[in-house]
């Protein structure tokens, strides 16, 4: 059974791999044999993830790029190719959020969030997917969506809109890249707040989340690793593409 999830010989590029969730997913890929490029705006935090992977016996390297500045993505793609010779897995995990109310939202803030969550992901994927097509060995692209992509959450208007668009992009590209044996899927996480974020959530907000989460708890970053490894593996999910895979403690199945 373990052979289904063996990623030995695969190269993974983790955009936003220096974040709490992106880092956990990247570490899961490395633990199953993938060589992982950790890409983030903050090189220091990317190097911290790399050290954790290396301490566990994995192979990884940190790279610096900002998906809202596509020239840096083009540069880092060349750097990663020099390091690894190509790639088989692309994990799109960059993200930006804001609680600005809709009537107070500025075009500048809208653009800033969309440049990371949507435009950045779309055009960074374009850069990496072109090389995957040229390699002619297939591959897997995994986008990170959100429960707010299907039913928008209050207080995060722009974020919700960007993630709804990511779902559409995922399904469009699944059809676009299927002839090249490149699968495109998205993971829809529920609430996986980092420890520092949990401390600032109001009691009412936490109660509201729990009332809509049948498992009655927050998710832990490590609980996203299984879905990531599954979607990355050609042997485990070779006929899976265009899927929006929920890892949300049942949030998507609950109303009132």
From TrEMBL:
Keyword Oxidoreductase: yes
Protein name (record): Glucose 1-dehydrogenase
GO molecular function: glucose 1-dehydrogenase [NAD(P)+] activity
Family: Belongs to the short-chain dehydrogenases/reductases (SDR) family.
Organism from which the protein derives: Gracilibacillus salitolerans
Any Pfam family: adh_short_C2
Xref: Gene3D superfamilies: NAD(P)-binding Rossmann-like Domain
NCBIfam families: PRK07231.1 (NF005559)
Keywords annotated in UniProt: Oxidoreductase
TM region positions: none
GO terms classed as biological process: carbohydrate metabolic process
EC numbers: 1.1.1.47
InterPro entries listed in its UniProt record: NAD(P)-bd_dom_sf (IPR036291), SDR_fam (IPR002347)
Enzyme class name: oxidoreductase
